[in-house]
Amino acid sequence: MAKPKDKNQVFKSVCRGCHGGCGAMLHVQDGKLVKVRPDPDSPMNQGWMCIKGLTAPEIVNHPDRLKQPLKRKGKRGSGEWEKVPWDEVLDEIAGKVDAIRKESGAESIALGQGTGRHHYMHVVRFANALGTPNWYEPGLAQCFIPRITASFMTYGGFVVGDYYGDVQPKCIMFWGHNPLVSSADGELAIVARRALNKGAVGIAIDPRRSETAKKCDLWLPIRPGTDDALALAMIHVLINEEIYDKEFVNKWTLGFEELKKHIIPYTPEWAEKITWIPASDIVKAARIYASHKPAILDWGLAIEQNCNSLQTVRAIAILRALTGNIDIPGGDILGMHVIRSYPTLKNRLPVEMFKKRLGADTYKLLGGWRSYMPSAHIPALLKAMKTGDPYKVRALLIFGNNALTTIANPRETYESFQNLDLLVVTDLFMTPTAAIADYVLPAAYWPEVEQIIAFPLVAQNLVMAQKKVVQVGECRQDEWIMDEIGRRLDLPESEKTLRDIMDYQLAPMGITYEELQEKNFVYPPHKYKKYDQEGFKTPSRKIELYSKTLQKMGYDSLPAYREPSESPLQTPELLNEFPYVLTTGSRRIEFFNSEQRQVPSLRRLRPDPQVEIHVETAKKHGIENGDWVKITSPRGSIRMKALVSEDIRPDVVNVEHGWWFPEEKGPDYGVWESNANILTSSAPPYDPAFGTYQLRGLLCKIEKEE
Fold this sequence. Notes:
Elements: E1 8-14, E2 23-29, E3 32-38, H1 51-54, H2 56-60, E4 70-72, E5 81-83, H3 86-104, E6 109-113, H4 120-130, E7 135-136, H5 145-155, E8 159-161, E9 171-175, H6 179-182, H7 189-197, E10 201-205, E11 218-220, H8 227-240, H9 246-252, E12 253-254, H10 256-262, H11 268-275, H12 279-291, E13 295-299, H13 309-323, E14 332-334, H14 351-354, H15 364-367, H16 378-387, E15 395-399, H17 403-406, H18 410-418, E16 422-427, E17 439-442, E18 451-455, E19 462-466, H19 478-488, H20 498-506, H21 513-519, E20 521-522, H22 531-534, E21 543-544, H23 548-552, E22 580-586, H24 600-605, E23 610-614, H25 615-620, E24 628-633, E25 636-645, E26 652-656, E27 696-704
Parallel strand pairs: 6-7, 6-15, 9-10, 9-13, 10-11, 12-21, 15-16, 16-17, 22-26, 23-25
Antiparallel strand pairs: 1-2, 2-3, 4-5, 4-17, 8-14, 18-19, 19-20, 22-27, 23-26, 24-25, 24-27
Helix pairs in contact: 3-19, 4-19, 5-13, 8-11, 8-12, 8-13, 11-12, 16-18
């Protein structure tokens, strides 16, 4: 823990109120965090910070925070708890885990976690050391991993927008992404806004005219779930009009001739019937993107949340290659990887366990040996908990995930969790998920955490030190909890500390974590066009438009369109009852997924969940702005307040993600009232490679609540 020199001290650290990574100034008085302000010296946010970071003291010092380990006394969900000392609770949990492991095998124990947290890779390490192949994170098949995997297969690495270099982008195409709200993964709202303010031409592809889209020159209001059709049509325009970068394509790509033949039927007119975007606008967007160089293609999770996730991401990725916007100043740059990868102990997982990973045999890019971060398929994991097929999953240890709000079909999740012999949840507050656990452990919030953060995520061009500056109650860092359980189970390398791991990662830079704390950050200059010396890190050393690797795995070598499994075109028989296209998952700047609903200042700004409806649609149903509305899909109903707007397609309804109500009575805390995932489905068909289920492009109806 950083030591104050006097009672009042200011520390530099990194905000982790989301996974953005703003440099932060933490003001501590008498051991208490009293204020957070943006760090003007940070190369990331340069003196800017969103409201989540500014209100961090309200979470750290919140009266409802979990501050001591709790053990269930009554029935699950009874709300009866007893406080237990750390040593006792860790002994009990380790003992029960060990007994289950000996009786049913390590595969019968699963680990779960939330998105983008400081302990993300440590959960993977803990799973491998424990010997279980079954860990999950709700976004793996639905968010980011498809983009990472497809990028590695296409370019040999992950690319990020060069917002921080000396050359400004001339065009930014925001595809299914609203960074002015989400600030995701180290590509922050402020840098995107500044690039647009400096003259970059903006193109927004989104069924909503989002906060980012309002700053753009062209808005393409796409039908949710049809992004691959739009990308294929744009590829068609680039090739047919010969406005692609011929020199780059000829020298650095593989499979262009195959792509050229493949793309012939995917005309803008064909795509118009599918995407509901005029063909003329498709052509216009492609021409702008091709003619304004350097350009950034800033993509978001919306493109992945469908049953054609892999090929959607592949089609969009190919646009970068055709325009030559790879690893050039002001374009999409390949990462520097300035630190070592986190030692996840992958080699410690027994070989026979690879075959027992749930879903791995079917969804090879999610759980197979070629996957970027091998994990279990969530629907298969829940089925194993509930039915014992193909074997019984008996225990689940969750670190920072409110599963009942973040996994599709939460009723199935609830039923599956009830069948567990052991459920342990580590979190900041009592959530609907924690309320049904056997043990609830108090987690540290980011000002109470030590970690090194490399941004942008995966690319790792900049390394920052996150510092522990306060200690609240008996809250502990998730890594410490896992390590303490690991030591009790005598797991491989359990003698290693988090400091040991961080020093190992930083060794190539010649510094330790202690030294990084003094520096605050290390930011080596970026090297562009690295492929000129070493080629791309693919089998051919070129960008692979045609993927032989995917072909060998049984997947399409070139991207193709696949209509969402539930949609106006695929299931027209549902349209009479459910006439609107549903999109879910929109973010609000006040909240990060299901977090921060307890923060008074944030709830005053956003007190209620909102459903966004077009003015014409609202009028048709007698709905006015602020009315409570019932939204129903074939799977269930929720209620939200109407946000009546012209900034959304008239045939699309948008619901916010992550809602529950900490102020309501437990154990449910209102999780069944306005939870977007009650409307979604975890049923097949899934993406053939990732097992992704459909969260966008579903069908729904709306009615004013009496």
